[in-house]
């Protein structure tokens, strides 16, 4: 019926209203949740923006700090390397100090030995002077040679004394008379005639004579020397001779000989890897310095041939080496056109002296001074100061390459020779004393043809 239908419709309407209300409620809840979510999203977006900005700022700071940080790291690494190098330098310096310290007793002993030798020589000299004063006897005759190069004097000591006419240096003493000398005269052939109260007259041959005293090797046997002998030097007491040479590009050779009998004292074992160009005894006779084509300067003990120290620095063949008077300094000359000065005690290079036009072929300390004379292929001999490298003077006059140089023990006379075959002698002030040129070759007489036309 209608009432039932109406009632059903009312139930449906109520149900629909309730559903709408529930739907509205759901929508309201969802809207509220959406609003909350939107607020949360807004906060999250703000937080994200803030975090992003902070991240960007952090990245900027990282980039800004990266360069200084890397620089700091590099500086730290560099400092570490410097520290390690300094440590190695300190270790080497400590070793050098130890070597130098170890060497001091030997050097002190050498100094004391030299002082004692000087004292002994002074005592001997004073004794000799006293004996000479006590035994002075008058000279009663004098005679000059025809060329004035020498003169002879004699008197109550019954001896004939020969002197150099230019320098006054004693040359020889002739003994044979049994009484005081009264007359002396040079003959035309330069012989000297003397007469004495012993009723005797003597004719003397006063010409300087050179005699072969000793020969080492005969130029044939290969067991004496390996190859050429290009350098040699006598010990200060004249009892030993050291020779240097060797086979080019294969071996260096150093041998020590007894002068009296020519016998081999010892041969140093493999002293250099190439030819030895120069050898020299130290003044005290304890060491030998050598230099060679292997670009090294080396020092060995004379007593046992033991290697002492090597000095490296030349860039070409080392052609010469020399000891200072006190044995504490070495000077070397080379084909690299320089002179190098070394501290023997530590092995350190003190300085390099340049200014040479060509190879520096030889070198020698001048007496007890700090000066050296050096021969060079630039046709000159140069005197240099080893303490500051300064030039003292140049000895000129050579016509070609100068190969070698030396000087007297007191450093007053300098002698050099070279390619022009002339030996030149200078005084230490640079003045030429004398020059010895080679003899002129004998002229062959032209053959004349005989017969008649």
Describe the model:
The chain has 453 residues and is of the alpha+beta class. It has three domains: 54 residues; 67 residues; 208 residues, YVTN repeat-like/Quinoprotein amine dehydrogenase (Methylamine Dehydrogenase, Chain H, 7 Propeller), CATH 2.130.10.10. Strands 1-2-3-4 form a four-stranded antiparallel beta sheet, with no helix packed on it. The C terminus is likely disordered.
The gist of it:
By secondary structure, the protein is of the alpha+beta class. The chain is built from one helix and 27 strands. It folds into three domains: 83-136; 138-204; 229-436, 7 Propeller (Methylamine Dehydrogenase, Chain H), CATH 2.130.10.10.
Key attributes of the depicted protein:
single chain, 453 residues, alpha+beta, Methylamine Dehydrogenase, Chain H, 3 domains, 4-stranded antiparallel beta sheet, 1 helix, 29% helix, disordered C terminus
Helix content: 25-40%
The CATH homologous superfamily of the largest domain is named YVTN repeat-like/Quinoprotein amine dehydrogenase
- Look at the structure and give the mean pLDDT: 85
Oligomer: single chain
pLDDT < 50 stretches: 447-453
CATH class of the largest domain: Mainly Beta
How many DSSP helices?
Answer: 1
Shape: rod-shaped
Secondary structural class: alpha+beta
Radius of gyration: 49 Å
Compute the number of structural domains: 3
Give the biggest sheet: 4 strands, antiparallel
- Give me the count of strands: 27
Q: How are strands sequenced across the largest beta sheet?
A: 1-2-3-4
What is the CATH architecture term of the largest domain?
Answer: 7 Propeller
């Amino acid at each position: 019926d209608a009432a039932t239908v109406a009632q059903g419709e009312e139930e449906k309407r109520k149900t629909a209203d309730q559903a709408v209300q529930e739907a509205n409620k759901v929508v309201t809840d969802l809207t509220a949740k959406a609003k909350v979510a939107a607020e949360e999203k807004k906060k999250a977006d703000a937080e994200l923006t803030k975090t992003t900005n902070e991240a960007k700022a952090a990245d900027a700071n990282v980039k800004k700090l990266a360069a200084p940080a890397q620089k700091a790291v590099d500086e730290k690494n560099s400092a570490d390397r410097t520290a390690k190098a300094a440590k190695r330098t300190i270790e080497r310096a400590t070793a050098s100090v130890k070597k130098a310290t170890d060497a001091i007793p030997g050097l002190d002993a050498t100094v004391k030995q030299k002082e004692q030798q000087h004292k002994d020589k002074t005592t001997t000299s004073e004794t000799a002077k006293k004996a000479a004063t006590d035994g002075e006897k008058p000279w009663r005759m004098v005679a000059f040679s025809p060329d004035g190069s020498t003169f002879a004097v004699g008197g109550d000591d019954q001896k004939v004394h020969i002197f150099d006419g230019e320098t006054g240096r004693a040359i020889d003493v002739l003994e044979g008379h049994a009484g005081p000398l009264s007359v002396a005269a040079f003959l035309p052939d330069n012989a000297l005639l003397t007469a004495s109260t012993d009723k005797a007259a003597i004719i003397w041959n006063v010409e300087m004579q050179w005699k072969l005293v000793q020969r080492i090797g005969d130029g044939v046997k290969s067991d004496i020397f390996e190859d050429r002998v290009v350098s040699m030097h006598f010990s200060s007491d004249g009892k030993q001779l050291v020779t240097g040479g060797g086979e080019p590009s294969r071996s260096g050779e150093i041998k020590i000989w007894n002068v009296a009998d020519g016998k081999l004292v010892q041969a140093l074992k493999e002293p250099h890897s190439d030819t030895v160009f120069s050898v020299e005894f130290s003044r005290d006779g304890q060491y030998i310095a050598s230099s060679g084509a292997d670009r090294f300067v080396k020092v060995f003990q004379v007593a046992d041939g033991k290697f002492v120290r090597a000095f490296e620095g030349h860039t070409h063949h080392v052609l010469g080496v020399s000891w200072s008077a006190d044995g504490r300094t070495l000077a070397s000359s080379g084909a690299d056109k320089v002179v190098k000065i070394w501290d023997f005690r530590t092995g350190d290079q003190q300085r390099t002296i340049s200014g040479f036009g060509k190879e520096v072929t030889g070198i020698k300390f001048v007496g007890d001074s700090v000066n050296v004379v050096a021969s060079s292929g630039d046709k000159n001999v140069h005197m240099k100061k080893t303490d500051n490298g300064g030039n003292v003077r140049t000895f000129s006059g050579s016509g070609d390459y100068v190969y070698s140089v030396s000087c007297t023990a007191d450093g007053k006379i300098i002698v050099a020779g070279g390619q022009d075959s002339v030996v030149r002698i200078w005084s230490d002030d640079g003045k030429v004393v004398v020059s010895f040129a080679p003899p002129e070759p004998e002229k062959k007489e032209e053959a004349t043809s005989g017969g008649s036309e």
